[in-house]
């Protein structure tokens, strides 16, 4: 049985830490890449359905374009085949874009 010298132990520890850093960077890259692929795929799916509207709509930036809820309502109208009613007396929440999101969820939930 061979005893590892203190120098070899430090070397093994350094190699182990280096491998862990490399693997961490690799996993982070693949996670970011997977998120990017999912975002592009979902954007294409939404655009496929929004192209059926008259007039058609187009999502360029998924997170920014659907934030105000207008495209979300349009998407839900295309998917459900029904016109979603937006009440005039609806009091907006603290963030203005949340109003349309709440209306869309409530309207679909009630069907």
Automatic annotation (TrEMBL):
InterPro entries linked: Actinin_actin-bd_CS, CH_dom, CH_dom_sf, LINC-complex_assoc
Domain spans labelled Calponin-homology (CH): 36-111
Domain of life (superkingdom): Eukaryota
Example GO biological process: nuclear migration
Localization (cell): Membrane
Keywords, alphabetical: Actin-binding, Membrane, Repeat, Transmembrane, Transmembrane helix
Matches recorded under Pfam families: CH (PF00307)
Listed GO MF terms: actin filament binding
Recorded GO CC terms: cytoplasm; meiotic nuclear membrane microtubule tethering complex; nuclear outer membrane
PANTHER family registered for this protein in UniProt: CALPONIN-HOMOLOGY (CH) DOMAIN-CONTAINING PROTEIN, MUSCLE-SPECIFIC PROTEIN 300 KDA, ISOFORM G
Name used for this protein in its record: Calponin-homology (CH) domain-containing protein
